[in-house]
Amino acid sequence: MNDIRGIVGDAACRSGADAARYFEDPRGSFTGRDCLVVLPETTAQVSQIVRLCNANGIAIIPYGGGTGVVAGQLSLDSNDAIILSLERMNRVRSVSPDDFVMVAEAGCVLENIHAEAERHDLMFPLSMASKGSCTIGGNLATNAGGIQVLRHGNARDLCLGIEAVMPSGEVLEELSPLRKNNTGYDLRHLLIGSEGTLGIITAASLMLKPRDPEAVTAFCAITSPADALRTLRALRRAIGNRMNGMELMSGFGVGLVCRHFPTLRKPFAGDHDWYLLIDTAGNRGLRDETEAALADCIEQGFVIDVVMAESEAQRDALWTLREHTPEANHRTGAFCSSDTAVPIGQIDAFVSRTHAAVTAVHQGLRTNSYGHIGDGNIHHNVFPPERTSKSDFLQAHPGIANRVREAINEATLSLGGSISAEHGIGRLKRNDLKKHASASKMTVLRQIKQAIDPNNIMNPGALLD
Ligand SMILES: Cc1cc2nc3c(=O)[nH]c(=O)nc-3n(C[C@H](O)[C@H](O)[C@H](O)COP(=O)(O)OP(=O)(O)OC[C@H]3O[C@@H](n4cnc5c(N)ncnc54)[C@H](O)[C@@H]3O)c2cc1C
């Protein structure tokens, strides 16, 4: 470990109480083991560290913003490891408006990338509630999704090239801004979504987009997820690919947000069972088109009522309700937070089947379902019965969190879905992957890992055991 300190200097190493935040999980569900945290500043330093670790069998856990929710960035399995934080590699290397490309280092915080793109009158459309802390390296390592996937795709769809340090210490320099480049296996896509198990992403070429002249936000009261699907269908027909995102929120969930954050206002005077938060963006006049399409939905009986944001401040206020949902779930005592996806047409069955599966595990459990309905990705957050604390409940019912997660997985798979939509596998879902993936898929995943990281130094215990 002294040799590693020699590469970056003592000031760029943390341990003990100084490093405590690197061992925490954003939901408070796991605590990592104490280990050395190293903060390199350049790709050359990362390469030197990796070479040293590979020669000495020291495991490396790459770390971005620490907002991952499947324990991929935590040292749960052994303290014979280092955490390699990319936070000091946070420079934007270049922006090329003609190419619509920004080259950014892995430790750039997502919100700072948004701001840099805006300085060039462009935008980077990947966005999520953790945008103030998560890093582009972590976003790519997890192939993050977020709130604009409907129109712009996942992190993978917004990355043109990658620079990465491979387990041997070699630097893969694939930062080309080309849109067309069919020259063998696409190593960029192998590294994206690999959760730090194949290499360390040190920089990326990101695809920028022109800014939309008009952005429209609407909050709708609806009766059921089935009506949400009808509304989605109608809007996609009317608005086409100018639909940025569509988020489903339950009346129960909006109530939790307003209870835990009393300064936030519910958009309607009365309460409703379900809500939709809708974003469209595009040409001038889109607001009128969106309003007309929603009026049509009201006429057809899919939508009960609509609030259209009249200003940027109102837009933010509506999105704040959605963005405070994860924290409200946490404060309410969520002990299981799922991230599964089904084909979009199965959303209604997904919600009802999951709720039934959860209460079959234990009568009295409460579920807040919310999320990216436009992508078929609904998060189900499960709480103990009313007036029972999370810790008392978990103590009285050992293993219940796993049983609930498995019940949700089974309900998802019965509808042709995936057990991980956008958060990845990490350490939390490693056994779920092993249980539900086909034998042939597991064989190929292991062969790839063995070929690229034969000494298993890259994030061992994440994704694969
Ligand atoms: C409030 C909240 C809201 C969220 N909303 C969303 C959402 O809408 N959509 C979504 O997809 N996710 C969401 N997440 C999950 C999380 O923010 C994303 O997974 C994010 O992409 C993680 O980025 P990070 O920089 O924090 O990565 P970390 O948590 O530090 O790491 C995540 C994984 O990536 C690996 N890793 C990190 N950096 C690198 C690198 N440079 N090279 C190689 N591997 C690396 C780590 O080893 C780990 O396995 C949310 C989380 C929170 C707390």
From TrEMBL:
<dbReference type="Pfam" id="PF02913">
    <property type="entry name" value="FAD-oxidase_C"/>
</dbReference>
<keyword id="KW-0274">FAD</keyword>
<dbReference type="InterPro" id="IPR016169">
    <property type="entry name" value="FAD-bd_PCMH_sub2"/>
</dbReference>
<dbReference type="InterPro" id="IPR016167">
    <property type="entry name" value="FAD-bd_PCMH_sub1"/>
</dbReference>
<keyword id="KW-0285">Flavoprotein</keyword>
<dbReference type="InterPro" id="IPR016164">
    <property type="entry name" value="FAD-linked_Oxase-like_C"/>
</dbReference>
<dbReference type="InterPro" id="IPR016171">
    <property type="entry name" value="Vanillyl_alc_oxidase_C-sub2"/>
</dbReference>
<dbReference type="InterPro" id="IPR051264">
    <property type="entry name" value="FAD-oxidored/transferase_4"/>
</dbReference>
<feature type="domain" description="FAD-binding PCMH-type">
    <location>
        <begin position="30"/>
        <end position="211"/>
    </location>
</feature>
<comment type="similarity">
    <text>Belongs to the FAD-binding oxidoreductase/transferase type 4 family.</text>
</comment>
<dbReference type="InterPro" id="IPR016166">
    <property type="entry name" value="FAD-bd_PCMH"/>
</dbReference>
<dbReference type="InterPro" id="IPR036318">
    <property type="entry name" value="FAD-bd_PCMH-like_sf"/>
</dbReference>
<dbReference type="InterPro" id="IPR006094">
    <property type="entry name" value="Oxid_FAD_bind_N"/>
</dbReference>
<dbReference type="Pfam" id="PF01565">
    <property type="entry name" value="FAD_binding_4"/>
</dbReference>
<protein>
    <submittedName>
        <fullName>FAD-binding oxidoreductase</fullName>
    </submittedName>
</protein>
<dbReference type="InterPro" id="IPR004113">
    <property type="entry name" value="FAD-bd_oxidored_4_C"/>
</dbReference>
